[in-house]
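Box 4.2: Ligand-aware structure prediction
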Amino acid sequence: MSVLVVRGAVAVVDGGGRVRTGDVVSVDGVIVETADLTDAIEMDATGCVVTAGLVNAHHHLLQTAFRTLPGTRGIPMREWLPAMAAAYTKAGVDPELTGLAARAGLAEALLCGVTTVADHHLTWPCGADTVGMARAAADAAAALGARLVFVRGAARDDPQEAAASADAIVRALLPGIHGGVSSDGMLQVAVGPAGVHSDSRETFDLLGEVAREHGLRRRTQANEVVDVEIALERYGARPLDLLEEWGWLGPDVTLAHLCDVTDDEIARLAASGVSATHAPGCDVPMGWGIAPVRRLRDAGLAVGLGTSGGGSNDAGHLLADARLAMQVSALVGPQLPASEVLDMATAGSADGLGRPELGRLTPGSAADLCLWDVSGVADAGVADPVAGLLWASPGRRPRTVIVGGRVVVDEGRLTTADEDEIVAQLYERVRR
Ligand SMILES: [Zn+2]
């Protein structure tokens, strides 16, 4: 039995906005109320705020290899999509590149306090070893000690091939498992077309069938500018009308982006039980809009937070995007308080993944946690340490990160891999 006790924190954010002081105790990777601490490993959290590990509900890890590419900024989404696609073709997306990009993106995630990443993988070249690509991402996560939700996406893929590949991936990565989550909770598989702007009803239908057969979560992207434009052009309907008609609004579905939604659509989304992922670190710099998070949450939707990929948001720093979410919220309604946005970046994201055991520090939750040192000059004078966690010290990184009771970041450095080697291998592969 492995017992860990984290002591002396300035504040412990439990989840659901509850803040307390005192110990955080875990036994064999699970948070408990109390335990026999005789042989416990003690961790000193003096000067730190302790939170649950952050959950990045929307990333495209492959794009970690394609950050700040010339010709991909300041252009409309219609031009951005083919510009990115040309870069993928030039680099040749295969298991090696998928693994190296995932390794860099997941290492960055852990160093930023993100313990779970949902990787919506959308690039599947014709004839590619798709199981090999998924396995490469899963192996990278396992080696680093990060939790991964691998989403078998599609973007103009042949519908039959996409579905056959999704089925093969879940059988290979989670053999004999129904429900899409490994027994240790470290790996999850889900499915998700890129959106109605790129994929046909047949792709949604067939990936939906794979999800039903294996009990997987479904995800897609909806209502960025181009999504609405193309849906109106092609079908004479808005994306959410199509998703509703195609059976893709339900409690097992999460929609990323949702920049441009009407009040009527928000009411229908809430009634369907669908959840949402806000990704301001992508939507704002790309000019796609700002999701009306306050109205979504007031309507009863679970809203999580995601960074989206390196092709639009060049960082996978979810806490920085939580800060941005607060800043821009005031442009589309009442400002979101820090505690609420932190809840979105933890429990809200976890709920959208169907993982209520993540993103919280309540008894029974996974022992995924971050120690954020708030004792430095950038936090001096802060009255509310939880608000300060998000508002003060932009770009803040945690001192210690624990996943399932295991320390994966110590004193701000990875314990599970050589950071320099991760960087060098990715540069070598993309020849930059
Ligand atoms: Zn996205």
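In the box above, the bound molecule is zinc ion. The mean pLDDT is 96.
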